[in-house]
Design goal:
heterodimer; A: alpha+beta; Serine Threonine Protein Phosphatase 5, Tetratricopeptide repeat; SH3 type barrels; 3 domains; 5-stranded antiparallel β-sheet; two-stranded antiparallel sheet; 7 strands; B: about 650 residues; alpha+beta; Immunoglobulin-like; 4 domains; 7-stranded mixed β-sheet; about 30% helix
Chain lengths: ~240, ~650
């Protein structure tokens, strides 16, 4: 079974590409390796391992911004993927003006853990399943009153609550992944301006790899907020949205 | 004067246990030419408390120099001995054979005599010239080994009219010894810097060579430096090794060895002849010098002695070394610069391991040559192993010449993939100077069986190890599945949510139907009858709402009659109370219903003829009509099913 599995996987062209990129990485051709990883990511594969490898390659190629971007991506996929957290902290050491993130509080941690118990689609499927069970319970109650009504009632209550939980989690997961309001600065040094136009005055400067919150955007300029509350406008091209 | 005081003080110093006492006379040459000076030496060995010393009378000789006095200690075979020597330089006055009777000395109160010597004085001094030159060197050949210090001290005497510089130049120099001047890159060159001296000197090395272009390895020298003796042009010199270094040229071409600079402070004894004074007034000295012995004074032509420290700086001449490059054309790929003669062993520490373990490949290169410069052999490790830089351990024999020892390289290999792996043979090449060719050695290949380990363990270790390096890549298999669209946004999600609702609706409908069939069929029938009544009374209800009482009663009456004619199949014109009663009883409808029916019909007729506007009553009549028709309907239905 395992052998068959690995054989199958070896035949997959994506795995071949992935192995090739790993080889390039070992030969210290980091930019080339990163290119291949990026290509795989662009094709729509988003395994955290793939993101971490891409991040490693960019890190070694001295593109800290892109490295951090990929590590963050991996963490969005799986916030408990250890290599990603570790490498992100290593990469952040290179970031000029990096302020340590406050580690999430225990309940935030729990929330994260609960949120990543299932994939967004898993939550949706679960909600469907529980809805079916809930309705099935009601139907049973309607059609065969001979079964103990107390038991059915409790069962219905539980499945109903679970359905509500699952559907709300599915919605929140969907919202989480489809909102792109944070970004990583990928250019070397960026001047942050007071207003969204070229002529306005520079307020401060940001360096590659800094994580910013994007709150507003025009065609060309994005309004950003830093964790310390500073706001300003900068060219959207210099931010890679997560 | 001072010579004598030294003599006396010696008596106190040499109170150590005396070894064999010896008092001897030696001459540098027993056959001398007439005008040739020669040396005579009286030596007192292990003589305690020398209180007086009387030389023999040199009647037939002229004292050119002396007495110069010398003393010292020597340790031979663990026995300590002391000696005092008095040296005269004499020149014969006449030709012939002369016997010099031995000197007389008093030690510990005993009078001792040295052996007499016979000197043959010949004419024709010129032809003995070469011999004269040799004289200082051969003066005391037999006793040199016993008293190594004596020679220097003798040379330390600056004779009258001697040039200080010339003397220094002759007696002190430094020299570079190289074992070869032409060699290959990386071949060993032994360089020895030596100080040759015949004079007592206090020397310090002020400039140490840097050996540019070489890798140097010093040989440790004994401290304090030990002198050896060496003959240079037949003259014995004391030799001190300043520095001994093994050099390995790092580049080809002509390299120069830097000079060594030595600062010397040479102590020279200056003698001034004092013959006249001694001859004129033998007692004069006694008067001036309370320590002198008048007896001595008569015979000693004591010179004035003074010491002088002469600084003297010397340098080695530069030495040029021609370094040949190693031949290029026949150079093996595995050559990394080893020159000499080596052997190599390579071992792996385990044959079976898991991917969690590390494999150690140990390569030991041992032999003679530039061991300290050996580079790690190039390893052709398959990519399924992660290779780390080797750990290098040296084991070089101390002070070995030629340099020999071993260097050990420990390569740590981390297997990345499970399976049977082969590590190709380790190859090592060196240049053998003796045969002028490259030699290559090869170990056997290593077969290693790697089993899969727990990858997680390795990763954990990685984290704890370095907080500043990123973790290694994920190299395993990935599930190449793209993310599906969000289910939440697809219509299927809603369809799937709707499906059970539909099922619920169906269930509800089914349940209703069941209820109707099982429990409430009668009620429903009654409801049907009621419905019939209500339909018949539809118009009546409208008149009731509009308050048209006459029309209402008429309509109610007609509706009831109409109903009866319809249900009992009696033509409208034939209807009469009697007939109805008859028919109803025929159908076994109980009388109460019939009574109510007639009462209603009566009420309606009454109301028609005695009109009074009373809404409540109309309402009551309506209700009654509905009830009666419903009941009749039910009864008739039942009667029908029974029939």
């Amino acid at each position: 079974m395992l052998l068959c599995n690995s054989l199958l996987a070896a035949e997959v062209p994506q795995q071949q590409l992935f192995n090739k990129a790993n080889d390039l990485f070992r030969q210290k051709q980091y930019t080339e390796a990163a290119g291949i990883y990026q290509q795989l990511i662009d094709e729509g594969y988003n395994q955290p391992e793939l993101y971490v490898n891409a991040g490693n390659a960019w890190y070694k190629a001295n593109r800290t911004g892109l490295a951090i971007y990929n590590y963050e991506k991996a963490l969005i996929r799986n916030p408990f993927y250890k290599p990603a957290t570790h490498n992100l902290s290593v990469a952040n050491q290179r970031v000029e003006g990096y302020v340590n993130d406050i580690p999430p509080l225990f309940f935030q941690q729990w929330w994260l853990q609960i949120q990543h118990l299932y994939s967004p689609n898993g939550w949706a499927l679960g909600s469907i399943l529980f809805f079916w069970l809930f309705i099935a319970g009601i139907i049973v109650m309607l059609l065969s009153p001979s079964i103990k009504p107390v038991l059915i009632k409790w069962g219905n209550g539980i499945t109903g609550v679970l359905f509500l939980c699952f559907i709300s989690m599915a919605v929140s997961a969907y919202v989480n992944t489809s909102v792109h309001d944070t970004g990583i600065i990928v250019s070397n040094a960026v001047k942050v301006k007071a207003a969204p136009d070229q002529g306005s005055k520079d307020i401060f400067e940001l360096h590659e790899g800094v994580k910013v919150q994007v709150t507003d955007a025009t065609q060309e300029y994005c309004k950003i907020v830093l964790p310390d509350g500073k706001t300003g406008w900068m060219a959207c091209a210099e931010i890679k949205r997560l | 004067m001072s010579v004598l005081s030294l003599l006396f003080s010696l008596g106190i110093v040499s109170c150590l246990q005396a070894q064999e006492f010896k008092f001897s006379t030696t001459v540098s040459n027993t056959k001398v030419a007439l005008d040739e000076p020669f040396q005579i030496q009286f030596m007192l060995e292990n003589a305690p408390n020398v209180t007086s010393f009387t030389p023999p009378s040199f009647n037939d000789f002229e004292v050119l120099q002396g007495p110069s006095q010398m003393q010292g200690q020597s340790i031979m075979n663990g026995h300590r001995s002391e000696y005092i020597a008095l040296i005269y330089v004499l020149q014969p006055k006449r030709v012939g054979n002369f016997t010099l009777s031995g000197a007389t000395a008093r030690t510990n109160g005993n009078v001792v005599h040295s052996n007499p010597v016979t000197i043959e004085v010949v004419k024709g001094a010129r032809n003995l010239g070469p011999q004269q030159q040799q004289l200082p060197q051969t003066a005391i050949p037999q006793s040199r080994a016993q008293q190594p210090g004596r020679q220097d001290e003798m040379e330390g005497v600056l004779k009258n009219g001697e040039d200080v510089n010339a003397k220094l130049k002759k007696n002190i120099f430094v020299k570079v010894d190289v074992d070869k001047t032409s060699l290959y890159e990386g071949q060993q060159l032994t360089v020895t810097y030596k100080l040759y001296t015949r004079l007592p000197t206090n020397s310090s090395v002020t400039k140490v060579p840097a050996f540019k272009g070489f890798s140097a390895k010093d040989i440790e020298l004994p401290n304090p430096p030990q002198a050896t003796e060496e003959l240079v042009n037949g003259i014995p010199f004391k030799v001190f090794i300043i520095r001994k270094t093994l050099l390995f040229p790092l580049q080809s071409g002509t390299l120069e060895l830097d000079p060594v600079e030595v600062d010397n402070h040479v102590r020279l004894v200056k003698l001034v002849k004092n013959n006249k004074k001694a001859a004129r007034d033998p007692f004069g000295d006694a008067f001036n010098d309370p320590f002198s012995d008048p007896f001595f004074d008569d015979f000693f032509n004591r010179p004035e002695v003074s010491y002088e420290d002469v600084p003297y700086k010397i340098q080695t001449p530069p030495v040029k070394i021609n370094v040949k490059p190693l031949p290029v054309d026949s150079r093996p790929i595995s050559f990394t610069g080893a020159v000499g003669k080596f052997s190599m062993t390579a071992t792996v520490d385990k044959q079976n391991l898991s991917t969690d373990d590390a494999l150690t490949l140990k390569v030991v290169i041992a032999g003679q040559g530039n061991v300290n410069l050996l580079n790690a052999p190039k390893l052709d490790i398959p990519s399924s192993f992660e290779k780390y830089d080797p750990k290098v351990t040296d084991n070089i024999e101390k002070n070995s010449n030629p340099l020999s020892g071993s260097r050990q390289f420990e390569f740590t290999l981390m297997p990345q993939e499970a399976g049977d792996q082969t590590i190709p043979p380790v190859e090592f090449s060196y240049f053998d100077v003796a045969s002028n060719s490259y030699k290559t050695m090869r170990s056997q290949a290593f077969k290693v069986h790697v089993t899969a380990g727990k990858q997680a363990k390795k990763e954990k270790e990685d984290f704890s190890e370095n907080r500043n390096t990123i973790t290694s890549n994920f190299n395993g298999q990935l599930q190449w599945i793209k993310d599906q669209r969000f289910l939440l946004t697809s219509p299927w999600f809603y369809i799937l949510l709707l499906l059970p609702l539909i099922a619920l609706a169906v269930a509800l409908f089914y349940r209703r139907k069941q209820d109707y069939q099982q429990n409430n069929a009668a009620f429903l029938k009654h409801r049907y009858a009621n419905k019939v009544a209500l339909k018949r009374l539809e118009l009546a209800a409208r008149y009731l709402r509009e308050g048209k009482d006459k029309a209402f009663y008429e309509e109610t009456s007609r509706a009831v009659w109409g109903y009866l004619s319809n249900k009992l199949h009696i033509p409208f014109s034939d209807l009469s109370k009697q007939l109805i009663q008859e028919r109803l009883s025929q159908q076994q409808i109980n009388g109460e219903n019939t009574d109510q029916l007639f009462e209603l019909l009566d009420n309606c007729e009454m109301a028609l003829y005695t009109p009074m506007h009373n809404n409540d009553k109309m309402q009551g009549t309506y209700q009654q009509a509905v009830k009666v028709i419903s009941q009749l309907e039910d009864e008739l239905q039942r009667a029908k099913t029974v029939a």
